[in-house]
Design brief:
Alpha/beta knot, Helicase, Ruva Protein, domain 3, 2 domains
Length: 244
């Protein structure tokens, strides 16, 4: 997942200090988009701002939403975090690996509930997926900043590991045109193209092939198919002449 496509959503956080510490955890891992849902907390006290050291831009730039529904309205993937394991849960690592595909190129909201109680059932119902951080069964509870840091770490790590795939070979214009001319011959042979005016349809077919950005191998396959069509059309024509 790309860090700039992710927004952390904190629902009804209990204390400003917790929010500030979460901001620092986000900044450590390249996340800068924060949304706060619920009543305004006092974020201006020096001891609170000290906990957001180096991440004051995240803290001061947080947007506000009146409800979780409003906070995530523009996101294509909404992920609830929970300390209570259940069926179908993702780990933060799986979120980092599969979240981008699930979001389909859109924004992802990762939602953290109140420290004491977590998200309500109604709030979890607004989310598309749930993430649970694996922890020792005797003490599963993490504080808000810890939970944010673990999730953000996996996102940052996955983004750092992503290497762009090598660009496939593309067929040259001359190769494409050879295939198009082979199509002309084959399609004229079977009567698909008008002998009097083949160019309009042929131009559309040429545009279709170019749009597909074929590889040299794919163009070779297309040219072979076209030549086989032309051969078959010639065989049929000779058979008709013999019958006549």
């Amino acid at each position: 997942m790309k860090p700039d496509s992710v927004e952390i959503v904190l629902v009804r956080p209990a204390r400003g200090a917790n929010v500030a510490a979460a901001c620092r955890a986000m900044k450590n891992m390249g996340l800068e988009r924060l949304c706060l849902v619920g009543e305004r907390l006092d974020m201006d006290r020096p001891e609170v701002r000290a906990l957001a050291y180096g991440a004051w831009d995240v803290l001061d730039g947080a947007r506000r939403a009146a409800s979780l529904e409003a906070a995530v309205a523009a996101s294509t993937l909404v992920v609830a975090t929970s300390s209570r394991p259940g069926g179908g849960d993702w780990t933060p690592r799986r979120l980092a690996a599969e979240g981008a595909a699930r979001a389909g190129g859109g924004a992802a909201s990762i939602v953290f509930g109140p420290e004491a109680s977590g998200l309500t059932n109604e709030e979890q119902a607004l989310c598309h997926q749930r993430v649970v951080i694996p922890a020792h069964p005797d003490h599963r509870s993490l504080n808000l900043a810890q939970a944010v840091l673990v999730v953000a770490y996996e996102i940052w790590l996955s983004a750092a590991d992503v290497q762009p795939p090598p660009a496939p070979d593309r067929a040259a214009a001359g190769e494409i045109e050879e295939a198009v001319q082979a199509l002309r011959q084959g399609l004229l042979g079977i009567g698909y193209l008008s002998a009097a005016s083949p160019e309009p349809i042929l131009a559309e077919l040429r545009a279709l092939v170019v749009r597909a950005q074929p590889t040299p191998r794919e163009v070779t396959l297309l040219r072979g198919i076209a030549r086989q069509v032309a051969w078959a059309a010639a065989q049929i024509a000779r058979g008709r002449e013999a019958d006549g």
